[in-house]
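Example protein as discussed:

>
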Amino acid sequence: MKIEWEPNGGDRRIHGVYTLAGKPFCMHMAESREEIEFLQTGKGTWADLMFAAQIDFSGWKCFGNRPVELAFKQGLLDKDTLAVHVLEVTPREVELLAESRCGVCLCPRSNWTLHGKLPDMERFLKAGIHPALGTDSLASEALVSGSDLKVHFVEQDTNIQWRDHVI
């Protein structure tokens, strides 16, 4: 069975539906080097996984881009968008996130567990972005406690203020 999946406009249609409904639009992006490699070249681990799942991506028009740049070009980043992870971002991509005024949610425990790397909180703060801290899901970490995040990540940095807010 061949799976058809439309990345060339599908996200814009979904974003439009959420915008019309007055709901936030959430995208996980720039989480791994493998994701970056796939979007830039159409090759690598992600391509291998899609090929194995019989997903035909040969006609996709997203290649040659980085995730945040692509989302920005497609008009997906705005004040109603929440960009999740953004672990593997360039200084230019941080500027695009700030310029678009979209929300940012960092998932440090998940990023550390899956990629051995933490988000560059200082870079976001210097750009005027005040990210939320998320826990991602039980698929990537055994504990999804906000209070655990507070103990391990926030209280170690005196420049970060903790505000309890659950969505």
Q: What stands out?
A: Residues 10-154 form a domain with the TIM Barrel fold (CATH 3.20.20.140). The mean pLDDT is 83. The CA atoms of residues 14 and 25 lie 8 Å apart. The beta strands are 25-29, 81-85, 103-106, 132-133.
